[in-house]
Write a structure and sequence with these properties.
Number of strands: 23
Strand order of the largest sheet: 9-8-7-5-3-2-1-11-10
Shape: globular
Mean pLDDT: 89
Number of helices: 17
Structural class: alpha/beta
Distance between the termini: 51 Å
Largest sheet: 9 strands, parallel
Helix content: 25-40%
Radius of gyration: 27 Å
Low-confidence stretches: 11-24, 660-677
Strand content: 15-25%
Length: about 675
């Protein structure tokens, strides 16, 4: 029989959880990195415009409570920012990495989770750090607790030899106990809120965190939209919608940390609609978006479009991409709302191209390989991130492609080069459309967009030769030294290095400090390869793959029938079109395209195919590609082109979904599984 005091405590906890649930039911947040006060205040002035009720302080402002406490002037900054955010109706949360050192003391690689055990003084110090932080920053509403990239991550710590409690625990139990220790002080003792971020670096760590979520209540979980660092090819984060007993909000990166950091437009409306749609179906409670990376900001920049898109597609997941742009363009640019449809479609294409240009530029056949950031890698002798950030870690279907990139053959080299040419073509098409639509922009808008799109075009050219150089060096190592093939590949590699040197010289003369694509970094990368080859230059050979241009559009051929995707392109006469394929992702293209569009008469320069969307699931991302043969170059294929199927409302009445075998699996809670691409 429970005592009266136990009953009161239980009712109080239930009441608190209900209040918290109501308070967290609709989180719309921004994450701020830059400690520049004037910038922060200018961003917060936009909070009401975008319906923001939640602000997180991180990175340059402070990655842990200790960093805030120990950095001169940082406490005052946090307090001032908190007051301004509160005046705008937004709560404030400080990031808190664990475990972090205090006062410069190192963290030992052992852990005891027993507060009265052999690490009692350690825990006293850690928990006192939170008490001190909230004593000095009393208006801050809570913390965002995380473990990845801390000074000492708990999954890398071994149990203290004197603590049987810790040794007996599984990793999820250990993590849950650590979270509960900190939550007991922050939430129960100090009355603040606790958000736990799932940041991790490996699938095993992700699994542990997912299991931990089942053991902790009274916190809010904040997974990223993908399992790790913002890779657009990654599956949906499996934690989304799977935090029983706790609220779940999802983190997005609008600062484009690994795709240009807002140096050029990267328009995300389609991508955000796709990720948000999954999140909405999973029943999550809101979002938090990074709106900057360091001192590079989304605001007063063409990429502010993405802030608006996140707001609008959260409010209305059924909003179409066309309607979004018809709303956004007149609101932001000098475009007349009555502008004819042809111009609006061209403006939409001008923006939408940029995401696919950046995606094909930075990612190598779906893999994030070259640099942990947006600039040129300075080491060209190996794709530095291929192993640790391999897509195959999260989707085993990609293991054969990982092996291709580890030891690329001739076809892989052609596929990579084709993908980079597509990035360049898309960027150039956006720049050409801007020039064609000059009258739709003010002088200042046109000048800014032109400058940024020119940077994108230049960067796609840099990355084309960068990718060819780095992977051709790997390809060269698969050849027998002294062989004819080795000599040819060495000459082709020299040609690519000389292309990079020529581009670097051009940039240095016009945009010396250009980011990304800094000429100093380009030259360091080239030099690293030359050093590995023994220095000096050799006879070069120019590599040129035949130019293939691809275009696609969606159309409704007849009333009452589902839309179709028309994919087409042009090619040189000597290139043989070898068909097309499509499916749910690049490694699962199980459908052939209807080749009704490819040319049957000389000069045979056109090709294409049809995808009947009545074979698809509504509101999903699909991909397609074309294949080619050439008498000299051999066979190769395009990169993956993405398209999203429309909502069920746009399918004909009585439309029947494909068989269960063709549908993604669904979780027990009704949310689509991680297989749902």
């Amino acid at each position: 029989m429970p005592t009266k005091s136990t009953t009161i405590a239980l009712l109080a906890l239930i009441f608190w959880l209900l209040l918290s649930k109501a308070a967290l039911a609709e989180i719309r947040g921004w994450q701020l990195h830059d400690p520049d006060l004037r910038h922060i205040l200018s961003v917060l002035d936009k909070a009401k415009e975008y319906d923001i009720n939640h602000v997180q302080l991180s990175h340059g402002i402070g990655m842990s409570v200790n960093e805030v406490l120990e950095t001169p002037g940082r406490i005052a900054l946090v307090n001032l920012v908190t007051q301004r955010a509160h005046s705008q109706g937004a709560k404030v949360f400080q990031w808190a990495h664990e475990f972090e050192s205090a006062g410069g003391r190192p963290i030992l690689p052992v852990i005891s989770v027993d507060l009265d055990g052999p690490m009692k003084s350690f825990w006293q110090s850690r928990l006192d750090s939170y008490r001190e932080f909230f004593e000095k920053c009393p208006e801050v509403d809570g913390i965002v607790l995380m473990f990845g990239s801390a000074s000492m991550e708990p999954w890398h710590m071994i149990p203290h030899p004197s603590c049987q409690m810790t040794r007996d625990m599984s990793m999820p139990e250990r993590l849950a106990t650590i979270i509960n220790h900190i939550a007991h002080v922050v939430r129960d003792e100090l009355g603040k809120e606790v958000i736990v971020r799932d940041f991790n670096h490996a699938p095993q760590q992700q699994e542990w965190i997912c299991e931990t979520a089942k053991l902790v209540e009274g916190v809010t979980w904040m997974p990223k939209c993908v399992p790790q660092d913002w890779e657009p090819y990654y599956p949906h984060n499996p934690m989304i919608g799977n935090t029983p007993g706790s609220e779940c909000i999802v983190e997005f990166d609008l600062g484009m940390e690994y795709m240009g950091q807002s140096a050029f437009p990267v328009a995300l409306p389609e991508y955000l609609k796709y990720r948000l749609g999954y999140q909405k179906r999973a029943g999550t409670s809101g979002y938090v978006a990074r709106v900057e990376r360091g001192s590079r900001w989304v605001f007063e920049n063409p990429n502010e479009l993405n802030v608006y898109a996140l707001q609008k597609f959260w409010e209305n997941p059924d909003l179409t991409i066309d309607d979004f742009y018809r709303d956004y363009l007149p609101k932001t640019y000098s475009v007349d709302p009555s502008t004819e449809m042809d111009k609006l479609e061209k403006l939409e294409k001008m923006f939408s191209n940029t995401f696919h240009a950046a995606r094909k530029m930075y990612y190598i056949l779906g893999f994030w390989c070259l640099e942990k950031g947006s600039d040129v890698t300075t080491r060209g002798t190996y794709p530095a991130l291929l192993d640790g950030r391999s897509l195959a870690l999260w989707n085993p279907d990609y293991q054969p492609w990982y092996e291709r990139l580890k030891a690329p053959d001739g076809k892989t080299m052609r596929d990579i080069f084709q993908e980079k040419m597509e990035a360049e073509h898309l960027a150039q098409e956006s720049l050409d459309l801007l020039n064609e639509l000059r009258s739709e922009f003010t002088d200042a808008q046109f000048t800014d967009l032109k400058d940024r799109l020119e940077i994108l075009v230049k960067c796609t050219n840099v990355w084309k030769w960068l990718a060819d150089s780095i992977f051709r060096y790997q390809h060269l190592k698969t050849q027998a030294e002294g062989s004819e093939q080795y000599a040819r590949q060495r000459a082709l590699l020299e040609g690519s290095l000389q292309e990079l040197e020529s581009i670097s010289t051009e940039i240095r003369g016009t945009r010396r400090d250009m980011f990304p694509g800094n000429p100093d970094r380009i030259e360091q990368c080239v030099q690293s390869i030359r050093d590995a080859l023994g220095g000096g230059t050799r006879e070069s050979e120019e590599f040129r793959l035949p130019q293939i241009a691809v275009a696609y559009s969606q159309t409704n051929p007849d009333e009452g029938t589902p839309p179709r995707l028309i994919a087409s392109g042009t090619k040189p006469p000597e290139v043989v079109f070898d068909g097309g394929e499509w499916g749910v992702e690049p490694m699962r293209m199980s459908n052939s395209m209807d080749s009704a569009l490819f040319a049957t008469r000389p000069p045979r320069t056109a090709f294409g195919g049809l995808i009947d969307i009545n074979q698809t699931v509504p509101n999903r991302r699909y991909v397609f590609r074309f294949k080619f043969r050439h008498p000299t170059h051999g066979d190769w294929e395009t990169g993956d082109f993405w398209f999203w199927t429309p909502p069920i409302e746009e399918y004909p009445e009585g439309y029947v979904l494909p068989s269960e075998d063709d549908l993604p699996a669904r979780g027990a809670d009704g949310a689509d599984s991680e297989e749902d691409f």
